[in-house]
Amino acid sequence: MPSEIIINCSKVIADHGWNIAFAESASAGRLSAEFSLTEHSGKILRGGITCYEVFVKEQILHVRRSLIETYTPESPEVTRELAERTAYIFNSDITVALTGLTTPGGSESSEKPVGTIFLYIMTPLGDVSRREVFSGSQEEIVLQAADMAAALIHDKIR
User: Considering only CA atoms, which of 39, 57, 38 is closest in space to residue 49?
Assistant: First the structure.
């Protein structure tokens, strides 16, 4: 069952008559799945793409290799590019892109530890960029990120 903030966010999106799409790297489709479980999913959910591997970011979403090499796949710059490309593909009113590190083995560092999540959210009322460091298991990090995305959308458009 989705969290209360995801349920409330879905209702606000539906009340505006808007839709939502997702580009998900670290969350691998979990945000789309959480929003699909709300009563308003049929009205709001446009779709999403899981772009866990760099290949998908580059070949499907056409994120420039130079951007990924300069900033890493888990960065605000790449996350923004993912949101912009996804908004175009899905013709979405609201677009959420999420990258980050939920397990060791990516581009983690002392400045970007495991648990770091980057969000870029595009809405008709303006964009939101956020970097947050969560703790917990891989699933707990992803669910915290999903709730944060929903809260940021809700606060921006209500």
Answer: 57
Report the C-alpha gap between 9 and 3 in whole angstroms.
10
Q: Which of the following CATH numbers is that of domain 4-157: 3.30.465.10, 3.90.950.20, 1.10.287.3510, 3.40.50.620?
A: 3.90.950.20
Q: Residue 34: is its pLDDT beyond 90?
A: yes
Burial of residue 156 (CB within 10 Å: 0-12, 13-18, 19+) is middle
The predicted structure's pLDDT at residue 107:
87
Residue 21 carries which DSSP code?
E
Q: Report how far residue 103's alpha carbon sits from residue 121's, in angstroms, rounded to the nearest whole number.
A: 23
Model confidence, pTM? 0.97
Q: Are 85 and 23 in contact (CB under 8 A)?
A: yes
Q: What is the pLDDT of residues 85-95, one digit of tens each?
A: 999 999 999 99
